[in-house]
Amino acid sequence: MFRPAAAALLFFLVACATAAPPTRPNDAEWKKLESEHAWLESMRNAVPVASPSQPRKTQIEARLELHRKLEPMVGALFAKIEEYYERTGDVRAARVYAGEKVRLGDEYMKVLARYDRAIAMYESALVLDPTSAPAKDGLAQAQSQRFMTLESFSRVRGGMKEEQVRTLLGMPREDWIKQVVQKSRVFSVWIYPRSDGGASAIYFDGGVVYHTNWNAAPAKSDSSR
Q1: What is the mean pLDDT of residues 85-109?
Q2: What is the DSSP string of the chain?
Q3: Which among 4, 14, 103, 135 could bridge 125 via Cys, Cβ 3.0 to 4.6 Å?
Q4: What is the pTM for the complete model shown?
Q5: Mean pLDDT within 45-71
Q6: Whole-number Å distance between alpha carbons of 8 and 176
Q7: Rg of the chain in Å (alpha carbons)
Q8: CA dist., res. 224 & res. 220, Å (int)
């Protein structure tokens, strides 16, 4: 037979072995996750990325390469953070998780011009952290640039440079930029979708606007008539 002291010790050991993970925020777990996230940030900062002045294709390729290098680490860490947040409801985890969604939203919007995906990222960030100013600002910008409006389009003038147009309207998707080289002259067209299903276009000669067409592609209702 077990002695009372031995029985008590055995009960304590079994209880410790079968205890469920904490369901409240706790510094012990969070500090470990915070340390891992800081290490991930240092890894990100150590990888050179293309500057905004470089060609669009170069920027996209650099971003994709960065994602390929860090994806295993990012995926593993944020699986831990998500599990910890769902279990404890720790607002610190929510803020970090929201910040990552804002980061992705910024890349979808500012590099890839995938405004629908950017909007989804910003909205999911605000679910996690309703006070996030970067998420609110990003969402407002993505919503305003997702579809071209006549008011915005009318601000473009002949003689403007590509950078000026980009500042006014944002960049279109990479596959909505067409380019032709004729006798060393570079002609390009930027295509912007409209909410009515049509599209508008801006034409460049050597990086300078020479023509615009609000109705480059008719609205769906017009084309079906």
Answers
A1: 94
A2: ---HHHHHHHHHHHHHHHPPPPSS--HHHHHHHHHHHHHHHHHHHHS----TTS-HHHHHHHHHHHHHHHHHHHHHHHHHHHHHHHHH--HHHHHHHHHHHHHHHHHHHHTS--HHHHHHHHHHHHHH-TT-HHHHHHHHHHHHHSSB-HHHHTT--TT-BHHHHHHHH-PPPGGGEEEEEETTEEEEEEEEEBTTS-EEEEEEETTEEEEEEEEEE--HHHHT-
A3: 135
A4: 0.76
A5: 77
A6: 72
A7: 26
A8: 6
Amino acid at 6: A
The per-residue pLDDT for range 8-18, each reduced to its tens digit, is: 555 555 555 55
| Euclidean distance between the first and the last CA atom of the chain, given in angstroms as a whole number | 92
How many whole angstroms separate alpha carbon 32 and alpha carbon 51?
33
Residue labelled with tokens 């997702």? 146
The region that residue 56 occupies, defined by phi over 0 for left and psi between -120 and 50 for alpha, beta otherwise, is alpha
148 forms beta bridges with 194
Return left, alpha or beta for 122; rule: phi > 0 is left, psi -120 to 50 is alpha, else beta.
Answer: alpha
Amino acid letter, residue 183: K
- 150-223: CATH number: 3.30.1450.10
Residues belonging to the chain: 225
CB atoms within 10 A of CB 202: 25
Close Cβ partners of 40 (under 8 Å, ≥ 6 residues apart): 70, 73, 74, 77
Measured from the Cβ of residue 85, the count of other Cβ atoms closer than 10 Å reads 21
